[in-house]
Amino acid sequence: MASRQPEDDAQEGPEPVTTPHADAVKIIPSPPLETRWPPFALRRYAGGFWLPEVTVKEGLPAVHSCFVPRPSDVILASFPKSGTTWLKALAFATLKRSTHPPSDGNHPLRHRSPHECVRFLGIELNDKNKDEFEALPSPRVLATHLPYSLLPGSITGDGERSGCRIMYVCREPKDALVSYWLFTRKAALARGVNVRSFTIQEALELFCDGRCPGGPQWQHVLQYWEESVSRPDKVLFLRYEEMLLEPEMHVRKLAKFIGCEFSGVEEEGEVVSAIVELCSLGKLRDMEVNRNGSTRLGTKNESFFRKGVAGDWSNHMTPEMAQRLDKVVDDALQGTGFAFSSTT
């Protein structure tokens, strides 16, 4: 089991799930430090979420002070490694299809990664490059891994503000953990960080305590789910496992949500299936830019493309490990009315 750090004054085990909303950035004085999830040190932020130090110091303040939302903006939200890359591709291809038809041989997704086409708030935005985000043509598609409670009211539409439309994709915790662990090892190794000791067992213990970037995962998911229930016109909640089973149905669903439904002519022209084909993980994985390119932050694009299937956790976790995580999640979600899709 993962050892505790002396300076860590957080309570043992997962926190109860709560959904406070913070319009203003609230920093905890000297927040607890967690250094066991490489490559970045994490800080325990207001509301109980663990965030990379760089996000606490730079990314989050930038979202609150530098980002000026537009009513036409579409924000793609997710806990890391939950289908973000695929959702970026699908949403971009759907929203931009009038200027970039999916059959176009020069479509942006054929020579740019989804992370280049859809920029990240909370990771990329800062005071120096805010003009780049302002210059993006409407409607903008942007992404974030920030918990709902840490988004500014200008995005969520608190009070009399209209806010943006938010699409959230969630993934079953065991698959999210395994995908996150494998991605972390690859990304950390590329930065010269020794990750030999970062085993799946170590990752499991930290994940169960919510001590991973963006964690606790189930609390992250629950906040967006509750908002989707109370404001379905503003927050669309998607499940990765269901998207895998019926991708075309979900493309139509997200198109309707963002106000650009497919016309009869487009349906007859099989535009929906063309978008699904263009954005398939197999197609994206084989693109030259995704095999050999890198993001603006230096992460290799190929790191974002693995199997993309449901239930792969069973190839990396023992039944006992799975049962441990299932119990942690079930206990935390008890009484909320929410349950994850099963991948057993």
TrEMBL record:
Keywords on this record?
Answer: Transferase
EC class of this enzyme?
Answer: transferase
Q: EC number(s) for this protein?
A: 2.8.2.-
Superkingdom to which the source organism belongs:
Eukaryota
Specify the Sulfotransferase domain's residue ranges: 71-337
Record SUPFAM superfamilies: P-loop containing nucleoside triphosphate hydrolases (SSF52540)
What Pfam families does the record tag this protein with? Sulfotransfer_1
Care to name a GO molecular-function term for this sequence?
Answer: sulfotransferase activity
- Annotated region described as Disordered, given as residue ranges: 1-23
**Do the record's keywords include DNA-binding?**
no
Q: What family is reported?
A: Belongs to the sulfotransferase 1 family.
Which protein, by its recorded name, is this?
A: Sulfotransferase
